[in-house]
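2024-03-11 09:14:02 DEBUG pipeline.ingest accepted 1 chain
2024-03-11 09:14:02 DEBUG pipeline.ingest length=384
2024-03-11 09:14:03 DEBUG pipeline.predict start
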Amino acid sequence: MSRQVPFAAPLIGAAEIEAVTAVLRSGWIGTGAVTADTEQRFADYLGAPHVLLLNSGTAALHLALLALGIGPGDEVIVPTVTFTATAATVLHAGAVPVLVDVEPDTLRIDVEAVRRALTPRTRAVVAVHFAGRMADVRALRSLCDAHGLRLIEDSAHALPAERDGTVPGGIADAAAFSFFVTKPLTSAEGGLLTMADGDAAARARVLSAHGIDRDAFARHSFGRSPHYDVVAPGLKYNMPDTASALLRCQLDQADAMRARRRDIATAYLAALADLPGLRLPPVDTPTDTSSWYLFVVQLGDGLDRDAVAAELHRHGVGTSVHFRPLHQFSYYRTEVASAAGEFPVADDAFTRVLSLPIFPGMSDEDIEHVATAVRAVLEQAVGR
């Protein structure tokens, strides 16, 4: 193999290295002024009234639930096509995840499936923006308002993205973002929580730092009092300035990196358009634009997804699978009652889905290599 294209790789340049180095030299590397500044920049970028940087997207989901008062006896509706953290945080909050099916073409949460899953115990809906394309948040907002429910967006894949005139977190009670190493923006590990209500956001901030009423930077700054009060049994979810410095540089490039991802997706859509045995992801429209975090294709009948992935690997192309539905995992089958339901769309899609490389550092030659390999492998597989 003369060329190998990994499934994903972060785009880290001199600006990120210099920013992190400056924090290391500053004498304070924990959560402090850099994190506060980065939070304000995200608030401005997203148009969000209240933002909180955290050490993971999982932490953001967990705090969203806790700050909104979700707990024992409550049910929270979650799509079965998502990463385990979406449902696991519901369980950590003491509530019960209720799994529902997804839309066939986009694998986003099915609004009608949500409607059918409502019970008197339902307290919230988690809308997962799959692969970078937003769920129908306006329809879900209307449904939640009609039934007195909270709407939480799992926006781990969607920064930036738009749908129907809104952005992630724009009309939800809370939105959780991830900055894991493969995400559209990265801080290596990290997350962001946006909240519409100031009191809920304040609760989340206190809970993120052990339930202490004053953060460590305030306590340890020269001349400040070291005394504090513990007002809640909190957690350790804060983001340090080292990670925030890296993330601040990434945010500066957010639009440019999304544009590059979109260019890669456009090239794939053109190069693979007439390929038999392949369903491509939906294209952007004026009212529905993706972050293009993932480029998820679905293979046709009779094709072995894992065999295709293995053959692409031999051609020097990395791939992944997003996602095995939650109801198929042993824990959820055993411990979550709704996992015994029927999920025909998710079950069918799981045997077909394959994620191709799409990351801003890809060269045009990388894109051509991936497209050529996919054509060669699938044409051979369908006997052309």
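2024-03-11 09:14:41 DEBUG pipeline.report The chain has a mean pLDDT of 96.
2024-03-11 09:14:41 DEBUG pipeline.predict end
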